[in-house]
Amino acid sequence: MHVGLHHYLVVSALLFGLGLFGVLARRNLLVIYMSLELMLNAANLALVAFSRYNANLNGQVMVFFVITVAAAEVAVGLALIVALYRKRQTAHVEDLTSLRF
Fold this sequence. Notes:
Layout: H1 5-25, H2 29-53, H3 58-88
């Protein structure tokens, strides 16, 4: 069986949908953050699939830059979550209604 573009896009859409469900349904900041990263990786998978299908490296180069920016975003995001947890002793979204410390 030949794995084509359609198969990659279906997997990408399923991963993106799973991430979207995690963002909308969960209340824990870490789970929401992981769901956002899952959505980002689903978009990366679609970019790589289109890049391979079109025999062009532009999508793969863009994914390289997206992963680089995502690594910095993970460091900053986790630092913020840890700081919020240390201050408020909770990681639930409904308990963090104010941005004031």
